[in-house]
Specification:
Helices cover about 55% and strands about 0% of the residues. With about 120 residues, the protein is mostly helical. It is globular and about 50 Å long. Bound molecules: zinc ion (ZN) (2 copies).
Length: about 120
């Protein structure tokens, strides 16, 4: 493999993983965190919360402190468990039902999704 090709492959992989960690257009913060943490784990920071905010609600500068006050003090999994505790009991990750307004921090209504399924 030439260096050029190696670089191209590397760039493509980086691009791919970047796309995999992109929140869906109407994906809520809770479903995004669940998806990212189960896929990539929590690194003890709010990196996924911040990523979601940067891409979906860039003006919500107070989002992290607000979530911290609601129990998500140190990292993404705390946000998930303490701020959004009412996730339905399930073995699989449910697809996000979608929020009405893109960038809304309110979790989507997964019960609605289940009823219609
Ligand atoms: Zn954590
Ligand atoms: Zn959702």
């Amino acid at each position: 493999m030439t260096d050029d090709l190696a670089d191209a492959v590397e760039a493509e992989l980086a691009e791919l993983s970047w796309r995999l960690t992109e929140p869906g257009q109407r994906e809520c913060l809770r479903c995004f965190l669940l998806r990212m943490i189960s896929e990539f784990g929590c690194d003890g920071s709010h990196r996924w919360t911040v990523r979601w905010r940067d891409l979906r609600a860039p003006r919500a500068t107070g989002l992290v402190p607000r979530l911290q006050r609601r129990g998500g003090c140190c990292c993404d999994c705390e946000v998930m468990f303490n701020v959004f505790p009412e996730y339905p009991a399930t073995d699989v990750i449910l697809p996000c039902a979608g929020v009405l307004r893109a960038g809304s921090v309110a979790p989507c209504d997964l019960r609605r999704l289940r009823k219609s399924a």
